[in-house]
Amino acid sequence: MNRATQLADIQSRIAAACSKAGRPGSAVKLLAVSKTFPLSDILEFHSCGQTSFGENYLQEALDKITQLADHPNAQTTGTHIDWHFIGPIQSNKTKPIAENFSWVHSVDRLKIAQRLSDQRPANLPPLNVLVQINTSGEDSKSGVNPDQAIDLCMAIQGMKNLALRGLMTIPSNTDNTDQLKIEFLKCKSVFDALNVQGLKLDTLSMGMSADLELAIECGSSCVRVGSALFGARDYSK
Ligand SMILES: *Cc1c(COP(=O)(O)O)cnc(C)c1O
After folding, report:
1. What dotted CATH number matches 3-230?
2. DSSP label at 22?
């Protein structure tokens, strides 16, 4: 399959899920998750109209961002990519994130948010931030507990160089649709509760290749799709 067809396939899965849920197709954005895949693959999707790409591993992402800046074709065509950081964040790595990304989906502690705000360069627009919610209750999972989301969100809202846009969750690693649905709906209910409290959140990042339809049914406005676009990942390389 060529890139345009792969992209159109995912767009039509999104459109079908939106229509089934009685939501407009424009309600859900596609984030292409490019971890482990080279810049050349990203540029192929970019030439088909995909502009937002998500990366999990900081060094790998920075390598691609540097390659893009040095890429002769990308330079002449003025290729612009919106880079989203979606992986775990170590506090000593916040500076390059603040400098190179336009979105961060995985903020789950105050210290990280404060550092991102302090380190966001003044010539860039505020960094768009999502707070990651631990909806599975597993201790091993990143994310703030749902009952702590309000305090963290309120604190972030007061930070000068961050724009709090919403929430993100990664549910349990299971095929059990009922369980996934409980977790997605948990995140949606936290999202709604925060908006009732006066926050103006517009982005709910949930759903991946295997479960994007369910996530859209549960209110997702941003699906993060990797393998269904790029193919299976090979971590041995
Ligand atoms: C890898 C990854 C994805 C994409 O997963 P696929 O199943 O390949 O679509 C989405 N979100 C996060 C946080 C990821 O790490």
Report:
1. 3.20.20.10
2. T
Tokens describing residue 35: 């971890």
Atom of ligand 1 nearest to the CA of 105: 13
207 CA to centre of ligand 1 in angstroms = 8
pLDDT by residue (tens digit) across 79-96? 899 999 999 999 999 999
**Alpha carbon distance 196, 184 (integer Å):** 18
- Residue-by-residue DSSP string for 174-225: ---HHHHHHHHHHHHHHHHHHHHTT----EEE---TTTHHHHHHTT-SEEEE
**Domain residue extents for the chain:** 3-230
Tell me how far the alpha carbon of residue 208 lies from the centroid of ligand 1, in angstroms. 6
Cα(211)–Cα(67) distance, rounded to whole angstroms? 32
Residue 142 Cα to ligand 1 middle (Å): 14
Residue 155 Cα to ligand 1 middle (Å): 28
Spatial neighbors of 175 by CB under 8 A, at least 6 apart, are: 210
Q: Which residues line ligand 1 (CB under 6 A)?
A: 33, 35, 56, 86, 170, 208-210, 224-228
**pTM flag (> 0.90):** yes
